[in-house]
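Q: I'm building a small set of examples for a reading group on sequence design. Run inverse folding on the following structure and report the sequence directly after it, with nothing in between.
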């Protein structure tokens, strides 16, 4: 049995598709109540975070094409990607990993590019490389052309705050705080500030967010929680601030491993407490479509595109565990950190399929993305909004050419994924007050290898900025549209209502390709009926919808 942590330690095996019979049914009556006078918390723009790791085609081919490339670029950064990325207003951008981070020496990626060393990439030996993948190339041997300053310039251009992950497994606490110094020391203040200036950046970048290790239960050191507490303390105990508030994020649990949270928080509480921790990072991938037949990390995965309908339900059920993971971890954290000083950070989430749908053979963990991934993204972002008091930051994995990517890029070709469009539509929620939103809808029922199973029938969240409300609704039913009555409780009425919908007209396997990049793209939609504070609308099967509503 291969578990995710074993995979991350370097094993490989053949994957197999899961299949199953489908007996889905749904009811059409449903209702959403938005409680306009019950704000939950501000939706942190940082919830709209992204993840860039030196893995396969994420950095090289994806983001970094080089200054001398024929591909249009801004200082070596793929122009089409930068421009599309700006549009979705990235809250934060996490780099350089992931597992890669705990093998990365930031000093390798600074100074003149010609003199930077070439290093073995953490992912070089992964058994998941496509069979035809070349044995060389930046995914296996990192040329270090994209280093700290290239990344920080990328963040500036895209408009997202950097979130750097420190190497806790193979570097020292001193290397960590010197990286902070190189990024944040005021011009001329330290030797590292002078070095940064010599590399072309006199002014500091004031990086606020720092991850202290990554998946320290696995590729980040294979620690137990008590051991990791000791390492965490050493790294976080003294770091120069240079006037910038530093927010440290601890490496939290692998999906449902609540023991990791309990033991870490229990141990940290014994000495020193929570003053040196801002966030606790949960990772949850949606991958197991086997319907309970296996928990094997390879056997349990399915195809990104050619899935039978039952895998639609299974994948979304796996994704919908997010709500329970947030509330369970939050409760445990609160047993020790009673004021909840530490917030939740979900800095890796998204779908993970078996290999075979990558757009180029250099894209390790590259996968296609269908309308199912868009529905997954809509449901997950709605969940984050409903828990805006707990989730302070998140990052979908990963930005381009890897896992649930927003972009596909290879050589001069570039396309947007369905997930990109969800981020574009949902960006309107950023910074708003999340509103209590109650959904009453029959669950979707399906057959899980002979046993009855169910999936949430409808997902929604709402937020408010003055009189402007944003309501997003995801209908995960792959077969039926859902008629919904929406009550805006506490509002006297709705003025202008503008809608956008993302759907695929009933094709649950639909996706965008370089040849057909707009197969899935949002369209405007009008709410069927608006009367006072009530809207009625029929949400298409397998769809994500947003309404911008002016309250009167
Ligand atoms: O996103 C791919 C990998 O998944 C990351 O490197 C690691 O943190 C996680 O297990």
């Amino acid at each position: 049995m291969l578990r995710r942590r074993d995979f991350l330690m370097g094993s490989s095996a053949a994957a197999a598709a899961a299949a199953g019979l489908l007996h889905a049914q749904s009811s059409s009556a449903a209702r959403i109540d938005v409680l306009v006078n019950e704000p939950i918390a501000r939706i942190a723009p940082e919830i709209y975070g992204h993840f860039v790791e030196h893995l396969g085609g994420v950095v090289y081919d994806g983001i970094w094409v080089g200054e001398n490339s024929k591909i249009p670029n801004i200082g070596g950064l793929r122009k089409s990607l930068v421009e599309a990325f700006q549009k979705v207003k990235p809250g934060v951008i996490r780099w350089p990993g992931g597992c890669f981070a705990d093998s990365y020496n930031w000093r390798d990626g600074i100074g003149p590019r010609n003199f930077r060393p070439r290093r073995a990439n953490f992912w070089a030996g992964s058994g998941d490389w496509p069979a035809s993948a070349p044995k060389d190339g930046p995914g296996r041997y990192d040329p270090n052309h994209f280093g700290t300053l290239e990344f920080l310039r990328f963040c500036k251009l895209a408009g997202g705050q950097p979130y750097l992950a420190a190497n806790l497994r193979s570097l020292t606490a001193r290397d960590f705080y010197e990286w902070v110094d190189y990024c944040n020391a005021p011009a001329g203040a330290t030797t590292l500030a002078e070095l940064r200036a010599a590399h072309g950046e006199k002014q500091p970048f004031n990086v606020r967010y720092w991850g202290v290790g990554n998946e320290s239960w696995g590729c980040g050191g294979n620690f137990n929680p008590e051991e990791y507490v000791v390492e965490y303390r050493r790294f976080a105990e003294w770091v120069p601030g240079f006037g910038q508030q530093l927010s440290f994020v601890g490496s939290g649990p692998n999906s449902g491993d609540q023991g990791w949270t309990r033991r870490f928080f229990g141990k940290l509480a014994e000495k020193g407490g929570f003053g040196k921790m801002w966030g606790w990072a949960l990772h949850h991938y949606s991958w197991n479509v086997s319907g309970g037949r296996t928990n094997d990390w390879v056997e349990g995965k399915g195809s990104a595109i050619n899935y039978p309908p039952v895998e639609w339900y299974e994948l979304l059920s796996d994704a919908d565990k997010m709500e329970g993971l947030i509330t369970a971890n939050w409760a445990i954290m609160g047993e020790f950190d009673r004021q909840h000083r530490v917030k939740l950070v979900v800095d890796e989430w998204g779908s993970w399929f078996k290999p075979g749908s990558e757009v180029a053979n250099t894209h390790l963990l590259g996968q296609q993305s269908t309308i199912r991934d868009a529905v997954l993204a809509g449901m997950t972002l709605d969940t984050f909004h409903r828990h805006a008091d707990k989730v302070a930051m998140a990052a979908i994995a990963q930005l381009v050419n890897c896992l649930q990517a927003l972009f596909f890029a290879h050589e001069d070709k570039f396309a947007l994924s369905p997930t990109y469009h969800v981020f574009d539509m949902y960006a309107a929620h950023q910074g708003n007050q999340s509103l209590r939103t109650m959904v009453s809808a029959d669950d979707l029922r399906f057959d899980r290898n002979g046993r009855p199973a169910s999936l949430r029938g409808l997902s929604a969240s709402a937020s408010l900025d003055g009189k402007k409300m944003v309501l997003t609704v995801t209908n995960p039913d792959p077969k039926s549209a859902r008629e919904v009555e929406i009550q805006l409780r506490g509002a006297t009425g709705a003025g202008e209502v503008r809608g956008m919908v993302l759907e695929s007209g009933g094709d649950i396997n639909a996706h965008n390709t370089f040849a057909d990049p707009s197969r899935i793209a949002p369209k405007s939609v009008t709410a069927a009926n608006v009367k006072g504070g009530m809207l009625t609308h029929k949400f298409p099967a397998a769809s994500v919808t947003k309404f911008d509503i002016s309250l009167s």
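DSSP finds eleven helices and 26 strands in the chain.
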